[in-house]
Design brief:
The protein is mainly alpha-helical and 176 residues long. It has one domain. The protein has eight helices and two strands. It has a two-stranded antiparallel sheet with strand order 1-2. The chain is globular, with a radius of gyration of 17 Å.
Length: 176
């Protein structure tokens, strides 16, 4: 494992999170400022669910988020070396909410695998980098579609994980 590889993983994770926050943050501010009472909680769920779905499924584009592709990384199944499925992506990334402090610590000592990788039997490998224009074209051209049942199942799992985390781990504190 190279020194550069370790930091590519951290950089891609940081960029993935930053973009999602920048996209959804203005909606959260508007919701907090102009909506009150029970509607506020509903709106937070309405905003938070797509955010969490996007975060948990960020690696469904053939095993790599757009930033992983730009940096030359890919998440693959440990046994087959094929890109992970959407369900595995959810399993892999759900540990970030439930076990965040442990994930951060483990990722510093084991940058190739974290708890989510162990659970989903995945790992990150280095691949050829994709240029920005290639990435843009690739995202436009994709003809294969994710099966709708995987998206529905993924969203339901995410809402359940969020509910558990919200009630039992974060003691009812709204995180977004």
């Amino acid at each position: 494992m190279t020194f550069i590889y370790k930091y590519k993983r951290y950089i891609s994770s940081f960029l993935d999170c930053t973009v999602l926050i920048l996209i959804f943050f203005p909606f959260t501010i508007i919701a907090d400022k102009y909506v009150t009472g029970e509607y506020s909680k509903f709106l937070q769920l309405l905003i938070g669910t797509p955010l969490m779905t996007a975060f948990f499924m960020k690696d469904i584009f053939y095993g790599a988020s757009p930033f992983k592709k730009l940096l030359g990384l890919k998440v693959v199944d440990t046994n087959t070396l094929e890109p992970i499925t959407p369900v595995k992506s959810i399993l892999r990334n759900s540990t970030l909410i439930l076990l965040l402090p442990f994930e951060v610590i483990i990722s510093f000592f084991s940058p190739r695998k974290r708890i989510g990788d162990l659970i989903s039997k995945s790992k990150i490998i280095e691949v050829d980098r994709v240029s920005f224009s290639e990435l843009r074209n690739e995202l436009k051209i994709k003809k294969e579609k994710i099966q709708i049942w995987q998206m529905i199942l993924g969203t339901l799992i995410i809402v359940a994980i969020e509910g558990i985390a919200y009630n039992y781990i974060y003691f009812g504190i709204v995180l977004w």
